[in-house]
Amino acid sequence: MQTKRVRIGDTVIGGGERIKIQSMTTTKTADVESTIKQIAELEQAGCEIVRVAIADEADAYAVKTVKDKIGIPLVADIHFSPKLAVLAIENGADKVRINPGNIGGEKEIRLVADCVKQHKIPVRVGANTGSIEKNFLEKYGKNEYALVESALYNVGILERFGVEDLVISVKASSVPLTVSAYELLATKTSYPLHVGVTEAGTTEAGIVKSAVGIGSLLLKGIGDTIRVSLTDNPVREVESAKLVLRACGLDEEYVEVVSCPTCGRCSWESMGLANKVTEFVKPYKKRAKIAVMGCVVNGPGEAKDADLGIAGGNGVCLLFKKGEPYKKVPAEQAEEELFKEIKALLQ
Prior knowledge:
This protein has 2 domains: 6-247, Alpha-Beta Barrel (TIM Barrel); 255-346, Sulfite Reductase Hemoprotein, domain 1, CATH 3.30.413.10. 43% of the residues lie in helices and 20% in strands. It has 13 helices and 15 strands. The chain has helices at residues 32-45, 57-68, 82-90, 100-103, 106-119, 134-140, 144-160, 175-186, 203-218, 234-247, 270-281, 299-302, 334-346; strands at residues 6-8, 11-13, 20-24, 49-53, 74-78, 95-98, 123-128, 166-171, 194-195, 225-226, 255-259, 288-293, 308-313, 316-321, 324-330. It has an 8-stranded parallel sheet with strand order 8-7-6-5-4-3-10-9. The two termini are 38 Å apart.
């Protein structure tokens, strides 16, 4: 779906732009040294927009110092206090995320809206199942209709106060509810959508829930920016988000490693080699495909479109390029020979 373009600092989302990856710091924002350090790690991992929690005035004032030391747009995350939203904006936030359901009435929202217009920054209206207004819950129950109507009601308030640069999210911890809510929302608005499954859980479960929820929406063309929410180091969020985009065919600037799960036919250490190759190619922003297959029964055929591949059996490994056999090497030399070819491919 084609959405409106919204600028966040030097970054643009929506309007057919490439989907941007977000994450959020876990540090106390007022601890500027720790916050700047963590954002640097997120940038290095590929984060393109970072959100920080504004829990008190010290956090709001810290926005200025933090922003001056980072290279990606900074979003101030606000709950309950319009005063803190204003303070964060005045200290240089590139965008604010508010949950109108818990920030007060129209008077409080107008206070934020006036400040946003003055500083010409966008607002993300973030609705989730924990903050749906009572009247929508009574009308619909806790479902996608309540989530979407809650978000759009608050969007309408901001529009009446003249705010035009808006981003919307309608998150739930339930994957089916999240997907249904975004599908419904996409039919009702042209504002860019920030997509994610909220409170997805610890690493393993959170990655699976996020991949299913975010991935299914991206494959339908829904979503302009994403966050994988994990109870873990936020760097893992960014790494996981990149993998989701790649799995959906929305990121081609990387080296893809395909490998089989191995079985009883595998007589060499292909699993370990596949992991080493995957780790080695992470820093490269180049479109290439490398296959590490356990045996020659169907390895070359399954990875025929790979730029470079290897398959093994009976103490010997076969290297192939573009699906064609290239060289046979003893299994004990397979790793060394494959890495020579990888380095030549990626230089």
